[in-house]
Design goal:
Length: 85
């Protein structure tokens, strides 16, 4: 068994081909992440289509909490970069 290389040992080739990597598209709803209600709705639909009932339940709870947050304070829920203080 070989020992793993130290991450401090910079032996990789620093060519342009090593810098250009394909994007990580593990989830079709990745583009909706961070968009509040839209992301929750996309995850609920995707989990239902996929048949992942545990993830669907978690997404439904997350969507409900996002909806509650929007109902309680619509401006802060629609502007995640805003701060109250």
């Amino acid at each position: 068994m070989t020992e793993p290389q130290s991450p401090l040992n910079a032996t990789d080739d620093a060519s342009a081909a090593n810098w250009v990597k394909q994007a990580n598209f593990d989830s079709p709803t990745q583009s909706w992440d961070g968009s509040g209600l839209f992301g929750s709705a996309a995850n609920i639909v995707y989990d239902g289509i996929k048949g992942d009932w545990g993830a669907l339940a978690g997404s439904a709870v997350g969507g409900d909490l996002d909806l509650l947050g929007f109902a309680m304070d619509p401006l802060a829920a629609s502007c995640p970069a805003s701060s109250d203080g």
